[in-house]
Amino acid sequence: MEFYELEAFKKLVAALDEARRLKSNLLIVSLPGMGASYYLKKYLEKGKPGKYISEAEQDLEESNILDLDFDTNGKALVQVDEYLKRAGAEQKFAVVINMPQILEASRFLESYLGRHAYKTYYFGLPGEEVVLQMAKYMNVGLSKVQKEKILSLTGGVGRWVKFLLGHLDLLDKPDEMMMSDELWRVVEPTVKVVSRCSHEVLEKLGLGSDMPELVKMFANKSEGSGEVDVVVGRDLVLSESGEPGVRALKIEADILNLMLGNNGVVEKEKVADLKWGEGTYDKFSDQAINKTMRRLDKKLKAHRIETISGYGFKLVRR
Questions:
Q1: Three-state secondary structure call for residue 226
Q2: What whole-number distance in Å separates Cα of residue 214 and Cα of residue 19?
Q3: Which burial class, exposed, middle or buried, applies to 14 when counting CB atoms under 10 A from its CB (0-12, 13-18, 19+)?
Q4: Each residue of 81-92: pLDDT tens digit?
Q5: pTM (2 decimals)?
Q6: Which domains are seen in the chain, by residue range?
Q7: Which residues lie across from 66 on neighbouring strands?
Q8: Rounded distance between C-alpha atoms, residue 80 and residue 21, angstroms
């Protein structure tokens, strides 16, 4: 099967063509590693009008695809807003969001992008056809059993399929698969994002009831090793698992309380709001925010603060 005949590609093309015909903007929601960026580049290679933009401050054309890596670029939402604000009436956008949990975050809902109505397309799991197409491209012969195993492990997530096609020996060695640091580096960005998405969003991405085995295998590695047990006392003393620890600064206590009330997660913008005042995130660097969180992390013994790339921080057990 040729790439342009893939059902996942044809559905994406239909969504982009419809948005262009209606002269409207389109929000493309996906996950890291699913291949949305590759598909969009192939869309343009096919001769479709538009400009692919993957960084800030680029010139615009009438049709533009903004793919600014929300999962790794903490300024992606701000950069998208800047593009939208300076666009002319005839300039339209397809905006790629590969960090779906941001759709429910206050900073998205209050952003220029979030306050305007967009048609949303969910770029979900491509499925079996991607396994077959990629095996053909890599010139890898697959038995029926191997094909079905790769499909059950990956669901068709392109980055994962590519890795397993190059490591077929792992298919029959689940213990080695779990211990593979190389495989973890491949699946980690997707697994971490999946763990923070609502069930409703996962359903729309084809991950609701039939989760790929690799997500299940590595879920615990992503989430930490148990329930968080931290209490911030009135005297600002931190207690972990019932054991009193050190005294926190007022800002550190405020951040911890916010995390504890939000499943252990806090956005970078919220840290800036607490530390410097409402709406101050754009005035300070991520480095300054990270310094505050590292200082808090050093005061914790049984827990640690894990960075959620491009989003914020999560409190987990060590």
A1: coil
A2: 34
A3: exposed
A4: 999 999 998 999
A5: 0.70
A6: 3-122 (3.40.50), 128-222 (no CATH), 230-317 (1.10.10.10)
A7: 53, 95
A8: 22
